Amino acid sequence: MKRGFAWMLALLLLLGLLSGCGGSGDAAASDDAMTGADTADNGTASAGGSYGAWAETEAAEDSGQAGDSGDDRLENAKMIYTARMEVETTGFDAADADLRTLVEVLGGYFEQAAVHNYGSGYRSGDYTVRIPADQYRPFLERVGTLCHVTYQEESSDNVSTAYYDAESRLVTQQTKLERLQALLAQAENMEDIITIESAISDTELEIEQLTGTLRHYDSLVDFSTVYITLQEVYQLSNVEEPATSFGSRVGTAFASGWRGFVSTLESLAVALAYGWVWLLLLAVIGAAAGRYFWKRHRRQTQPREPEKKP
Q1: Where in this chain does the record put each DUF4349 domain (predicted)?
Q2: Which of 70, 89, 112, 168 has the most CB atoms around its CB within 10 Å?
Q3: Which of 156, 155, 147, 106 is nearest to 229 (CA)?
Q4: Mean pLDDT, the chain, whole residue set
């Protein structure tokens, strides 16, 4: 009886060892690719700006799917979608309010939001938005209608292999735990009890880690991540129609060069306005230094009067 019990215990320990080795490589590789967080403060905002009413009426009509949802190959795939956007606006307050309203209407939340003003007179905002995966594509398109997009990058990560591997190992560990608990109920001597309890503890730890991994994957799959940089500008960049003929291309080049020259002068004037105290101080110091050296040079160049003989 004891020999049979020992063989059953050894078989269960071997099963746990094989299941742990089978998926550890994929899990380690997938953890490096995961970004974002499972928990975050749900940033809420009141409806504001010019977008509010339109967004609320249009959100219910949108049933677009993230990525290429019509592709059967991705029907059961675990996809993580990430995007980075750089946008401009001439009305920062309205754009910020519209963006917050859009996120709220589509069922997302702000993982991080910050507004900066470095003294240049123009503000900028950095946002990390978590948006439901089925609203990922509509969200990107609507941001483009709220602000002027200057840069957009999208990426996707298929974590199906790592996800289903972790899910399979979780089922194996749960089965192993049930059998170990049954063996513990039949154990008679203290040595077997200690060995089984140690195996149960290791199995419970493995189950907890696998459960956390699956929850983290679920968070990244269910909610896509969009990083947005909102910049307030005096004039939107690259808004002219693309030139086709030689004359229009030359005219566009001259116009762009003139706008760049004017923009540079405006930036210089703003910088001088902010630093007028330092400029005044430097001017005073420069005038004092120039006066001192001029007097010194004058004394050195003047002819000396001849000494009178007694």
Answers
A1: 78-288
A2: 89
A3: 147
A4: 77
Q: Distance between CA atoms of 235 and 264, rounded to whole angstroms? A: 13
> pTM, whole model, 2 decimals?
0.60
pLDDT at 227: 97
Asked if residue 149 lies in contact with residue 239, where contact means CB atoms within 8 angstroms, the answer is: no
Cβ atoms of 229 and 85 within 8 Å: the answer is: yes
Residues in the chain: 310
Tens-place pLDDT, residues 76-100: 899 999 999 999 999 999 999 999 9
- Domain ranges for the chain, please list them: 1-239, 249-301
Say which residues have a Cβ less than 8 Å from residue 297's Cβ, sequence separation at least 6: none
